[in-house]
Amino acid sequence: MDDKPRRPVATPSYSVAQSAPHQILVCKACKHTGSSCEPGFALLKKLRTAIAAAGLSDDFEVSGTACLAGCVPDHGGPCVVGWRANSKATWLFGDIDPAQPIDDLVEFARLYAALDDGWMAGRDCPPRLCDNTLARIPAAMIVTRKGAIQ
Questions:
Q1: Higher pLDDT, 68 or 75
Q2: Minimal CA–CA distance to 60: which of 26, 85, 28, 81?
Q3: Nearest to 60 by CA among 84, 41, 88, 79
Q4: If we measure between CA atoms, which residue out of 43, 47, 89, 70 comes closest to residue 133?
Q5: What value, to the nearest 5°, has the Cα angle with vertex 124 and ends 120 and 129?
Q6: Which of 98, 19, 122 is nearest to 108 (CA)?
Q7: How many CB atoms lie within 10 A of CB 148?
Q8: Does the reported pTM lie above 0.85?
Q9: What is the distance between the alpha carbons of residues 80 and 93, in angstroms, rounded to a whole number?
């Protein structure tokens, strides 16, 4: 028998299908409590409405996902939100309070959609997001023996 610790299987699945050119991901499951994240569900609903009102629904799908592992345990509800798209940098913002205005999130969506590669300096983000940046991850470049695939 193998005595090595086994990697836990994510439940629910962390795989999220993308049906629009860009995707905004909002945590809806909490690794700290092992249950659903009510603030995440509230933010998800609010952000879907705001993206639609801003006329960005054709460019963005707003999806809930398993824990993005960027929140502070027992912090009372601030959320983690991520932006991703094919061939673009991925952005992750933390400590997003669903009770606060989300105009900065919508503005970031506009900026992100306009960039070919999704890359910008943190100082170019809407002001309230500058201090909440958890990660800016370069777009993945998959390389095979036959060459790069993007």
A1: 68
A2: 85
A3: 84
A4: 70
A5: 105
A6: 122
A7: 8
A8: no
A9: 6
Radius of gyration of the chain (CA): 16
Instruction: Give the residue from 122, 58, 127 showing the smallest Cα distance to 89.
Output: 122
Q: Which amino acid is at 106?
A: V
Q: Is 38 helix (H, G, I), strand (E, B) or coil?
A: helix
> Three-class SS of residue 5?
coil
pLDDT in tens, 19-72: 778 999 998 876 766 667 788 889 999 999 999 999 999 999 998 887 777 776
Residue type, 97: D
* Structure-block tokens of residue 39: 């603030």
SS3 (DSSP) at 106: helix
> Where in the chain are the domains?
22-149
Is the predicted pLDDT of residue 1 greater than 90, yes or no? no
Q: How far apart are CA 71 and CA 45, in angstroms?
A: 19
Query: For residues 73, 48, 137 and 103, what is the CA-based torsion angle, rounded to 10 degrees?
Result: -90
State which amino acid sits at residue 137.
I
- Write phi, then psi, for 44 (nearest 5 degrees): -55, -50
Q: Spell out the residues 6+ positions from residue 58 whose beta carbon is closer than 8 angstroms to its own.
A: 20
The CATH class, in words, for 22-149 is alpha beta
